[in-house]
Specification:
heterodimer, A: four-stranded mixed sheet, 3 helices, 23% strand, globular, B: alpha/beta, 7 strands, autophagy (chain A), isopeptide bond (chain A), Ubiquitin-like protein ATG12 (chain A), ubl conjugation pathway (chain A), Atg8-family ligase activity (chain A)
Chain lengths: 102, 289
Amino acid sequence: QASDGGRALCDTLFPAVDVLLKAVGDTPIMRTKKWAVERTRTIQGLVDFIKKFLKLMASEQLFIYVNQSFAPSPDQEVGTLYECFGSDGKLVLHYCKTQAWG
Amino acid sequence: MTDDKDVLRDVWFGRIPTCFTLYQDEITEREADPYYLLLPRVSYLTLVTDKVKKHFQKVMKQEEVSEIWFEYEGTPLKWHYPIGLLFDLHASNTALPWSITVHFKKVVELLFFLKHFHCNLFLVSRVRERLLRSANFPEKDLLHCHSKDVIEAHFMACIKEADALKHKSQVINEMQKKDHKQLWMGLQNDKFEQFWAINRKLMEYPPEDNGFRYIPFRIYQATTERPFIQKLFRPIASGGQLHTLGDLLKDVCPSAITPEELNVSNGVSDFINSWLFSVPYITWMASRG
């Protein structure tokens, strides 16, 4: 079991986690779906990145879902979500311009 | 679970006596008295402070009112954290009542002054920029909360995340929309029975299992950079015995506990299950020993 020091070391050696982005409904699909995202990147940071990549306007809404069931808080870190909800070495996130799973 | 009802009630009805004062730089037409309120530990600041808003709005002009936010000794208070957590994190060592500063004045006066003295347009916009950044909503620290719907969405997302860990979302997904609504209304209206009629289903597990799949928990520490610790943690050890809170702390933040504290917290085996109450997570304020 990792101690505090172990986790800090882990973060240094493996600062990024693999994230797979999946579009929902008629939201534009990203040409590149798999990204290495820093553990400390927040959901809001990821939203801003996707919006920029898809050339969406800053004012447009974008929702992110984990496990096709809940929308994490904008300040939640990708690393924590990966630890708790990742599988097969990656975190799958669904993104949508409208609310998909409430 | 019925034996624990007293504990459930104690957690639900926990209150923090609080004194709200308007930020002193927000000059108003008349001075506003501080406003006193008992805050529910399990709720959210923006959900329970309508009376605070109304009180301070009485001394302000309508056009000056913008989004309310709260601060304690210079630290903006995250409304999306439960009130009890905010208190434990920032103010547990200070005397009651908890003194919170209220902000919600738009910065308009100085602009009026500058415009009337024919200031250079460039200068006006630079000063305005600086003023807006310092006196207005702290974007880097706080989420916006424009309506109660935002609080409801956040609360339900927390419930769903917790159930994803406990039951692979099976229990929350099997519920009807009206059950979800009842959870929220129970919290909003401070109705223990209404809330727990639904929440108890989220606290059950099949008899053949000995607990949830994973325990939903978050550990907040005032002293660290990262917002909180959240990891996968099974309620049952490989040998079949139930994990205690002490086991959890030893595993995820060993530096926060001394051996003496560990002995105290190695209590009843299903203590760890019985603490998953009104908030979906165990919130534990670990102070550096």
